[in-house]
Design goal:
The complex is a heterodimer of chains A (about 375) and B (about 230). Chain A is built from 15 helices and 12 strands. In chain A, helix 2 crosses helix 14. In chain A, the strands form 2 sheets. Chain A has a 10-stranded mixed β-sheet. In chain A, strands 2-10 form a two-stranded antiparallel sheet. Chain A is of the alpha+beta class and about 375 residues long. In chain B, about 50% of the residues are buried. In chain B, the strands form 2 sheets. Chain B has a 6-stranded mixed β-sheet with strand order 6-7-8-3-9-10, with helices on both faces. The mean pLDDT of chain B is about 90. The chains are: A alpha+beta (about 375), B alpha/beta (about 230). Chains A and B meet through helix 1, helix 12, helix 13 and helix 15 of A and helix 2 of B.
């Protein structure tokens, strides 16, 4: 089959304008598809550190906006299989001003435990000590430090909104996470936040992050933890960390169906465009197909060559589209944040996009190619095109 | 069967259906063509001469009758076998040249060789030899649009002979050519017949072209006329 490829390639460039327009339409569609699949991948298949499989997140059963008591922590710790527990309270607040570029996640936490529950975040021991020992210290991820141009020893102010307290913080540690999501974040002492609160708001936390001893223990711990607080006035909902993260995505609506619908529409539309192009291209060449068959080409070979031609066009469009998608994602980089991290174009997304391009080429040509290859030779030779 | 006959047809009939009409394109045609002959099939339009040629080339199947070419009963072959057989044994020259416009002269001639087991280099060598044989050694890299009609038809002849077939079938090969180009093409066909002992069957309605043939048979209204009998005017 390899020796027919140059012939198929030359045929694909027969009507240059049409081929270029087809490649352009496929590439634009594949670009869109590539970005959408990348978003889908970021939501549902993003590579997570292995520690994530060991972590659970406990929140208020009613909603994430309701807090849970701090005193749950020692009780959680008693559940067999729990290795470590740490509270994390979303502070919100304003850094510099309300513009999106100054937004990043900020949590009040327990500095003694946060890096035990998130061991994938590596931190210099000296910096960790400095972070733990100073009441107004903050630890930030490396990505955040680079993005906001923050450095060790720098003082920053967070103006409270959810909590009616302004925080004067000093950056004492810069840690490195395994993913942007864990790197683009700031931690500080929850106790420091509580100092400025009225008594009624003290002793409450947003969530507990629980580190299990084994992945097998995770479902049981979730079940037992929620059971433990079933009769309390603040019931809990404990999920694996992955499920907890996906619950944010579901707040946007049925994102999965939405993304898949758009992807489906894009693929279907481009399939029709390509099928039309291939049908036109094949119809114009019925006579040539008759000539090829007179020379001894079998119907199967003719069929394969026409399909190869369509696949070449679709793959060229697909490659171009993937390159565009890759370039856009690379260039815009971290500004394309998708809920838990920077939008990236992993190889699997490129492979899927190219696979779709291949399928478009195949499916768009198979019917016209089949029909054309089976026209009787004498009819084909009489065809006027 | 006489071993000298390269082509033998017996009561060959071809009937087409066009909507509700039945059209008898060829009726009970029996012909024997000897190896090394240059036969011209003559007749007016619709007389069945191209149909007979198509049946001999096995690019169409007869409604009834038998056609044996090079000792092979063509009805006994499957479509795949026929394609292979045609590639190996038959070179076909069309009236309208039918070169592939996106391929150069050399690539057009190389096309039938793609179906063989020859290496790329061997294919190129064979194609170049065939082109030199028809006097187009200096036009190998030219596309069909860069060639004259006569040159295009010579490329088509090179394509027909590149697999070294025993039989060359030509369907009105000079129909689209001026007289000078027609003479060149007919001379090449004649040389192939005389010097390389190729059997040539040429369909034409041009008496001048038919003069290049060693034998002439006439068809009229789907009937193959007996030897020496001319159609009624």
């Amino acid at each position: 089959m390899r020796k027919y490829i140059p012939f198929a390639f030359k045929n694909s460039l027969r009507n240059k304008r049409r081929t270029i327009l087809t490649i352009a339409s496929i590439s634009v569609s594949l670009f869109l598809l590539g970005v959408l699949i990348a978003v889908y991948h970021a939501f549902y298949f993003r590579a997570a550190p292995p520690e994530q499989a060991l972590r659970l997140v406990m929140r208020n059963r009613v909603s994430l906006t309701f807090s849970i008591p701090e005193y749950y922590e020692p009780k959680i710790r008693q559940i067999p299989g729990v290795k470590e527990v740490v509270s994390r309270s979303w502070f919100g607040g304003i850094y510099i001003d309300n513009r999106p570029e100054y937004f990043f996640p900020r949590f009040g936490t327990d500095p003694e435990r946060i890096f035990k529950v998130y061991p994938e975040m590596t931190i210099d021991p000296e910096q960790l000590k400095a972070f733990q020992s100073e009441r107004t210290a903050a630890a930030i991820g490396k990505t955040l430090a680079e993005k906001q141009n923050l450095r060790l020893g720098q003082k920053i102010t967070l103006k409270g909104d959810i909590y009616p307290v302004d925080l004067e913080l000093t950056i004492r540690a810069i840690f490195e996470g395994t993913a942007d999501s864990s790197d683009n974040v700031m931690y500080f002492h929850r106790k420091y936040v509580e100092e400025g609160l009225v008594n009624a708001r003290k002793g409450l936390v947003g969530t507990f992050a629980i580190l299990a001893e084994s992945a097998e223990a995770v479902p049981r711990i979730a079940r037992e933890a929620d059971e433990m607080f079933r009769n309390s006035d603040r019931q809990t909902k404990t999920d694996s960390e992955r499920a907890f993260q996906l619950s944010f995505v579901s707040m946007l609506g049925n994102v999965k169906v939405f993304l898949l619908s758009i992807c489906g529409a894009v693929v279907f539309t481009i399939l029709l465009v390509s099928a039309n192009t291939m049908a036109m291209s094949v119809r114009e060449r019925i006579k040539e197909i008759g000539v090829l068959r007179t020379l001894g080409f079998t119907t199967d070979k003719v069929l394969a060559m026409i399909i190869a031609e369509a696949v070449i066009i679709a793959m060229l469009g697909g490659l171009l589209g993937c390159l565009m998608a890759f370039a856009v994602v690379q260039v815009l980089g971290s500004s394309l944040q998708v809920m838990f991290g920077t939008l990236r174009m992993p190889p699997v997304v490129l492979l899927i996009s190219l696979g779709v391009a291949f399928a478009i080429g195949l499916l768009s040509s198979v019917i016209p190619a089949y029909n054309a290859s089976r026209v009787p030779i004498t009819d084909a030779l009489r065809h006027l095109g | 069967m006489n071993n000298n006959f390269i082509i033998e047809t017996k009561s060959l009939t071809k009937e087409y259906k066009r909507d509700e009409f039945r059209i008898m394109a060829l009726h009970q045609a029996s012909i024997q063509i000897e190896k090394g002959e240059f036969l011209a099939l003559m007749g007016p339009s619709g007389s069945g001469k191209s149909t007979l040629l198509h049946l001999i080339a096995a690019i169409d199947r007869p409604s009834s009758g038998e056609v044996t070419v090079l000792g092979q009963n063509l009805q006994a072959l499957s479509d795949k076998e026929i394609a292979r057989w045609r590639n190996e044994h038959v070179g076909f020259v069309f009236q309208t040249f039918n070169l592939i416009p996106v391929l150069t002269a050399r690539e057009n001639v190389e096309l039938p060789l793609l179906l063989t087991h020859l290496s790329k280099k061997e294919r190129i060598d064979h194609a170049e030899t065939a082109l030199k044989l028809v006097g187009l050694g200096d036009r190998m890299g030219h596309y069909p649009r860069q060639l004259s009609g006569g040159q295009e038809q010579r490329v088509a002849i090179a394509r027909a002979i590149v697999t070294d077939p025993a039989l060359i079938l030509a369907d009105e090969p000079t129909g689209d050519l001026d007289s000078q180009s027609a003479n060149e093409v007919l001379t090449i066909l004649s040389k192939l017949n005389k010097e390389q002992n190729k059997t040539v069957v040429m369909v034409t309605h041009d008496p001048h072209a038919a003069k290049f043939a060693s034998k002439i048979r006439h068809l009229e209204k789907g009937e193959l006329l007996p030897k020496g009998v001319l159609p009624q005017v």
